[in-house]
Amino acid sequence: MPEMKTYEGGCHCGAVRYRAETDLARVMSCNCSHCQKRGLMLTFVTPDHFTLLSGGDGLADYQFNRKVIHHLFCPGCGIESFARGRKPDGTEMVAINVRCLDGLDLTTVTAIPIDGRSH
């Protein structure tokens, strides 16, 4: 049974901070051109499990390909600590960059490889 926990995280310089409730049982490592170059490891939550604490006004937005995901990053340090988008069925989702969660030992996380390059 997945264990929901509350995590805090954010960008490198600290301007962007958030709180997210997730279980980290389904962390993905995508090989699309964006995720691979950024080294992203992602878990997904619905907006009711995500609270942006600071830095929302200054976020820069990058979109590519079908432009359905808003890759949001801090203009100061350039870190993409989360993104916003929709699942194919239209459900809003927030993609949390697991590497940006405070105090998380990444050796305890198993990432599932996703072939985003082929889609």
Automatic annotation (TrEMBL):
Keywords: Metal-binding, Zinc. SUPFAM superfamilies: Mss4-like. PROSITE patterns: CENP_V_GFA (PS51891). The keyword Metal-binding applies. The keyword Metal-binding applies. It comes from the Bacteria. GO terms for molecular function: carbon-sulfur lyase activity; metal ion binding. Residues 7-115 form the CENP-V/GFA domain. Belongs to the Gfa family. This is Aldehyde-activating protein.
